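Protein details
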Amino acid sequence: DVTGRCLRQDDSRDVAASGAPDCLNCGTRLSGQYCGSCGQRARSRLISLWQLVAEAFGDLFELDSRLWRTIVPLLARPGQLTYDYLLGRRARYMPPFRSYLVFSVIFFVVAFFDPRDDLGLLLEPAPEQTQEQVAEQKAAAEQAKREILGELTEGGIEMDDPGEDDGFGFQVQIDGDEDEIDEVCNVTDESIENFPDWLKRRLTAQRLKQVCERIVADKGATFVDLLLDNIPVALIVLLPLMALILKILYPLSRRYFVEHLLFFVHFHAFFFLILTLEILFSRIAMLLNLPETLTVLTLVAASLYIPVYLYKAMRRVYGQGHMLTFLKYVALAAAYVFGMSLTIFGAALFALVSV
């Protein structure tokens, strides 16, 4: 049986496929089917395509894999993964940074992957609408808009006509003709005189004007795409900043900086996981036509669980009382908001330079 995993004593059948008595990976003398030093199997031959695929996705589909054994405590036991890891109980769980990368990738795929745009060539195009259907849809939309504006006006709320909207989702719209663009993007040397010197060298008045014109020309779409591309890097930069804050808040804990970093790696992995579940739940609720009240209450409860999770994780890992933990929790939350704003600003600045 080529898929067997039983261990046997060293004999001619246990020698690697090349005939070498040493491990092909680390050179250690073999004494069975697996190397006693690095754990690699002695046989180097790939038996089948199925084994290659199973090896690649084994953690995802095996119910007893470390991935599934990591998800339950990550969601339901705040701080337990960090606590166990610091005590040395590590082999049963997925490595911390791997967990962070896996759940962050899943989140960004679920949140921002649009099969209509990214897989447009593989999808059958929708049937074109006739001119009569387009006219009817525009007329219905215009009528609904007039009714809403009329109701707001009767209630004493005056609003300008928002104009036409050709889509849904996260958009930035900056409209205007050439004269208005020239007026909006009128950047001079005086406009940037208060910038730091290092920023002036990179964002001159001429370059800033060109960037402004490009953003206005495509209504901010390129800038938003670049900003979203920079957010994962910004969140990675945020990790050591928050670990430093924890190091300051717990000076007597005798924990190394990397141990505080581990705490936030696990917390961000949980953060990505809970956001992914919220997005999936909202989409499933929409498909199943679940009551809107139930959907909203569930999403609100899941969102409120995030700050509660952080507090309980601090209690579990650092083991201090409620009052002291709460005071440090407030300080950490304030530092987190400031750090998040700072890193997002940096991401926006890099996106601005890259336009």
The chain has a mean pLDDT of 76. Residues 322-354 form the longest helix (33 residues). Residues 176 and 183 are 10 Å apart (CA to CA).
